[in-house]
Structures are given as structure tokens and as C-alpha cells.
Specification:
With 185 residues, the chain is α/β, with parallel strands linked by helices. 35% of the residues lie in helices and 17% in strands. The structure holds zinc ion (ZN) (2 copies). One zinc ion binds at residues 145, 147, 150, 152, 168-169, 171-172.
Length: 185
């Protein structure tokens, strides 16, 4: 038997997902949360979450399945998808997370400026890193932050995402450090 794995944050691609972006998210998660990361595909298919009328994936049912499938040694799981996500009250979402729970998801689908205007890979990557950390931040109990420069600031558009910085504000950083300490990190 192999020794028990150290606590880590799982990165779980859903469907096809760009390998370079996945690696960049892993690096950023290790930097911000100080946890190891591991790539593990927890959901083989997500047809259960697809809305037949909208054609989009419902993020909430995916989070429930992810949390149920998450192995015990994983502190959190972040799913990554190129598909369009929604929750019933919004046309679309960049991602969703269980506040104080274990599962989060982020999508690249709406992080371009507009359909038909693909952004440079580097710009998309910067936005994805911010939204990935933002959603994982929610799983550590962080809520939306009024500081427009903070990663936990709520953004409606890719341009809003570009405006916020790549770090947590001092207040959110303290809350995160407390949550990490409680999690034994
Ligand atoms: Zn949020
Ligand atoms: Zn903040």
C-alpha cells in the first residue's frame, strides 16, 4: 500500500481543457493557498448537468457530484471547464463555489471579451487565474469583498476581472490564513 497522500487541492478538468492553462492554475493555487495540487478527473461525464433548453451546464449539480466524489485527503476540489456555466438566476457565471464547502468550478467560456472576439491566450490565462482563486477562496469561507482591487471582488464582466489585481486584500488574506490554519495547513 502506498502511504496516505498529503492534504492537497485537486484540480479536476471537466471535458477537454487546455493543458497550459491547467498547469498555470496549479501554480497559482500553490502560490496563493500554499497547498500542493493534484490533477484528478473526478467526473467522466456531465450530461446530468446539461440544461436541454439552454444547452449550458448547471454549475450547482456539478458541485454536488464533485463534493461527493472528492477523496478524503483532498482539502478542496476545483473543477475547470471550457463549457458555458449557469445558475438559474443568472444568464451565465464565470464559476461557482460552495461557501465554506469543498467544491468549486470555474469556466473559461465567458472570460473572452465577446463571442467572436477571442482574446490573447495570456489575457485569458490572467483572468482564469483570478477567477479560479476567487472561487476557491469561497470554499475557504471568503465572501465577496468591497475592495475593487481584491481577488474576492465580484466581477460581472471580463473587463471587471482585468481591473482587479492578482492578490487578496489584507483583510481577505487574514481570513484565508485563519481558514488554512484551521484546515491544518
Ligand atoms: Zn464570488
Ligand atoms: Zn478582500
Amino acid at each position: 500500500m502506498s502511504p496516505p497522500a498529503a492534504p492537497c487541492i485537486l484540480l479536476s478538468p471537466v471535458g477537454a481543457f487546455d493543458g497550459e492553462l491547467l498547469a498555470a492554475v496549479g501554480e497559482e493555487v500553490r502560490r496563493v493557498f500554499g497547498c500542493e495540487t493534484r490533477i484528478l478527473r473526478l467526473l467522466e461525464e456531465v450530461g446530468f448537468a446539461r440544461d436541454p433548453v439552454r444547452g449550458q451546464l448547471g454549475s450547482t449539480p456539478i458541485l454536488e457530484r464533485l463534493a461527493a466524489a472528492c477523496p478524503p485527503e483532498a482539502l478542496k476540489v476545483l473543477a475547470l471547464t471550457e463549457e458555458d456555466l449557469f445558475i438559474p438566476v443568472f444568464t451565465y457565471v464565470f464559476g461557482e463555489a460552495q461557501l465554506g464547502g469543498r467544491a468549486a468550478i470555474v469556466s473559461t467560456h465567458r472570460l473572452g471579451l465577446a463571442p467572436g472576439f477571442p482574446v490573447a491566450h495570456a489575457a485569458l490565462c490572467r483572468r482564469l487565474l483570478k477567477e479560479a482563486v476567487h472561487e476557491l477562496g469561497h470554499t475557504f469561507g471568503l465572501r465577496h469583498c468591497p475592495d475593487a482591487a481584491c481577488l474576492m471582488h465580484y466581477c460581472r464582466s471580463p473587463r471587471d476581472v482585468d481591473r482587479k489585481g492578482g492578490e487578496l486584500c489584507r483583510y481577505c488574506r487574514i481570513l484565508l490564513n485563519d481558514a488554512l490554519a484551521r484546515a491544518g495547513r
